[in-house]
Write a structure and sequence with these properties.
The chain is of the alpha/beta class and 691 residues long. The protein has 25 helices and 26 strands. It folds into 3 domains: 228 residues, Rossmann fold; 194 residues, Dimethylsulfoxide Reductase, domain 2; 116 residues, Barwin-like endoglucanases (Beta Barrel). Helices cover 31% and strands 18% of the residues. A 7-stranded mixed beta sheet has the order 5-4-15-14-13-6-7, covered by helices on one side. The longest helix has 14 residues.
């Protein structure tokens, strides 16, 4: 019997925990602690503990599939590649779109971005960051010149005040929650604002529930109170910020509309709790803001993110240990996929596709004989879906790697209509997902345990995956599939890679923030945080220490008005619906629901209803109810609880049989094009009464 331990990085959330895969006779059979990681120090959450259980499932894709007469039949790779190449060559670049993946490696996202722009010549490439943190990238870039988490995970433990809003950190990022508890142990205060009394909220020194969509009003109210009491960081603001912008912000937050009394009416948080929060944040030696999709997934998501930056600049909490704006990324490599340019507006390292110098740089570096896509912004995934649904014939073909929009995107009826209008769909994945079932060609890919590569965590730490076993059947590594399709289409010379390391070396050449990285440097427990501009640079755990990333080096305040969600409760739909995750499952469940231990813990979804609301509706705990919005309806068990604000309801979004996204609103933030998953109007009916 041959047993070995292979160190790798967890494939679930953006924390970037290191663990060992236990390999017995060539197969992954378990996980074991890896104690040298500075991120998780040998600890993992339930998902990490059971991250091996889906790897060798019998329903892993193992051969290419081609749909013939509505049914999938197994095919050879040559047959699949020939069909894909023939079809793709028959479309104009503007008729094709590509979705990359927050679940795959940096190298694979880079390869697909290069394939989209260089082989297909299309400008339409995006991935699921559009659905979770597009507003973070836009909002923090506007404030600081860089759209990423400003501090490190370990740094949170040093904070004297942690303010968590829009994040159930202890369930979604448990090992970051551990750092929050260390901050508390070190004397720091914990403030949690959330519509639900979550496991995170239960650890708070100050908890307040509020109505989804009140965020800008809350931040403006807190900042007004801080300024009225003289707690703002006057010297820091004078040295580090654009003062004209500061005066605009000051005037805005001191308006009567943002008095604590008025903010209390908008948010449902008491004046006393708002005062306490403002004092704790305003007088703390260091304060950290932690947020996730509860802030970003709104039609005002960019404004919400700018508000977090406003508060932290106001209090001088940027560029210091224990401070910062800490956007907690939901998927293991959503940061890396953004860094790799799997977005419609940038190449790697956020180099704009519309910048002639950047466009020429990549055109020259890649050496495509017939050039690359035009220097124009492409469609975001949310816009792709709208175009497919509303303008049939404009987009005709799509190549999707490791994404599952048929469960992850809002208003699924609209998404289904959109995909029905595609002429040709290729899906590359490890399981036959809801999206793969609609494909014309399905390509079997490898999971994290079957390949080498890197992923970039929420704290900008670039970490290694290490191959632990061979893939099932004829499945291939994603970058290899992409390279072989490129070769079939006449571009073998542009994809000469023999290993993931070859691709990473190319990434480092063209990406300033990764320029000093290589596999030798990354093959250490601490890895490296970008920006890392040269091989002697130690990496950058904390951003903006001396100046911000804008050319002038100043932080930019934004004076913002509060706007309600696109859809608010009314007589017909009297409640607010919000959505999120639970500790046992992850996103569309394609991996966790195939992990026996995790699925046994939580086998299906639910809708949380406040006890008083349930009484008014005559609904009992665990009763099946019909949840209805203007976009659709689902039957789902009720969870009657005091742990959610009266007037608000919550559903997890992992479960296809009671899909929360059958109900959610695809209204978009005008800048980031992110949908408003976190607030829409809903009604709930007893099933027997409705029938």
């Amino acid at each position: 019997m041959d047993i070995k331990y292979v160190q790798t990085t967890c494939p679930y959330c953006g924390t970037g925990c290191t663990l060992n895969l236990v390999v017995k006779d060539g197969k992954v059979v378990g996980t074991a602690p890896y104690h040298r990681s500075p991120v998780n120090e040998g600890k993992v959450c339930p998902k990490g503990t059971y991250a091996h259980e889906f790897v060798n499932r019998e329903d892993r894709l193992s051969k290419p599939l081609i749909k013939k007469n509505g049914e999938f039949v197994e095919a050879s790779w040559d047959e699949a590649y020939a069909l894909i190449a023939e079809k793709f060559k028959g479309y104009k670049p503007s008729e094709m779109a590509v979705l990359s993946s927050a679940r795959t490696s940096n190298e694979e996202n880079y390869a697909l971005m290069k394939f989209a722009r260089g082989v297909l010549k299309t400008k339409h490439i995006d991935h699921c960051a559009r659905l979770c943190h597009a507003s973070t990238v836009a909002g923090l870039a506007a404030a600081f010149g860089s759209g990423a988490m400003t501090n490190s995970i370990g740094d949170i433990a040093e904070s004297k005040c942690v303010f968590i809003i829009g994040s159930n950190t202890f369930e979604q990022h448990p090992l970051i929650g551990r750092r929050v508890m260390q901050a508390k142990k070190n004397g720091g205060k914990l403030i949690v604002f959330d519509p639900r009394y979550t496991p995170t909220a239960k650890q708070a020194d100050l908890y307040a529930s509020f109505y989804s969509g009140a965020d800008v009003a809350i931040f403006n109210g807190l900042m007004g109170e801080i300024i009225r009491n003289g707690w703002e960081a006057k010297d820091w603001i004078a040295k580090r910020c654009d003062l004209e912008r500061y005066e605009e912000l000051k005037a805005k937050v001191l308006e009567p509309a943002y008095s604590l009394e008025n903010v209390s009416k908008i948010s449902g948080i008491s004046v006393e709790d708002l005062k306490t929060a403002a004092e704790w944040i305003g007088t703390a030696e260091s304060a950290a803001v932690l947020y996730s999709m509860g802030i970003t997934q709104h039609t005002v998501g960019v404004d919400n993110v700018k508000s977090t930056a406003n508060l932290q600049m106001l209090c001088g909490n940027i560029g210091i240990p224990g401070g910062g704006v800490n956007a907690l990324r939901g998927q293991n490599n959503v940061q890396g996929a953004c860094d790799m340019g799997a977005l419609p507006v940038v190449f790697t390292g956020y180099q704009k596709v519309t910048d002639p110098a950047a466009h020429k740089k990549f055109e020259d570096a890649w050496g495509f004989p017939d050039g690359i896509c035009p220097p124009e912004n492409g469609y975001e995934v949310t816009i792709m879906i709208n175009v497919l649904a509303d303008n049939p014939g404009e987009l005709k073909a799509m190549y999707i790697m490791g994404e599952n929009p048929l469960l992850s995107d809002p208003d699924l009826t609209h998404v289904e209509k959109a995909f029905a209008n595609l002429e040709f769909l290729v899906v590359q994945d490890i399981f036959l997902t809801e999206t793969a079932e609609l494909a014309d060609v399905v390509l079997p890919a490898t999971c994290y345990a079957e390949k080498n590569g890197t992923q970039t965590s929420t704290e900008r730490r670039v970490q290694m995956w290490r191959k632990a076993q061979e893939p099932p059947g004829e499945a291939k590594v994603d970058w290899q599939i992409i390279s072989e399709i490129a070769a079939k289409m006449g571009y073998a010379a542009q994809f000469p890679y023999q290993s993931a390391e070859d691709i990473f070396n190319e990434i480092a050449e063209v990406t300033p923030s990764y320029h000093g990285m290589n596999y030798e440097r990354l093959n250490k427990p601490e890895a490296l945080h970008w920006p890392c501009p040269d091989v002697d640079h130690p990496g950058t755990p904390i951003l903006h220490c001396e100046k911000c990333a804008h050319p002038h080096g100043k932080g930019m305040f934004h004076a913002l008005e509060w706007k309600p969600p696109a859809e608010v409760p009314d007589a017909e739909y009297p409640y607010i619906l919000t959505t999120g995750r639970c500790i046992w499952h992850w996103h569309t469940g394609s991996m966790t629901r195939r992990s026996e231990t995790l699925d046994n813990e939580v086998p299906t979804g639910w809708i949380e209803i406040n006890t008083e609301d349930a009484k008014d509706l005559g609904i009992a705990n665990k009763e099946m109810v019909r949840a209805i919005t203007r976009r659709g309806e689902v039957e789902v068990p009720a969870m009657v609880t005091d742990d959610i604000k009266k007037g608000e309801m919550f559903m997890p979004f992992h479960f296809k049989e009671c899909a929360a996204n059958r109900l959610t609103n695809n209204a978009l933030d005008p800048g980031a094009k992110i949908p408003e998953f976190k607030a829409c109007a809903i009604k709930v009916e007893k099933i027997q009464e409705a029938e």
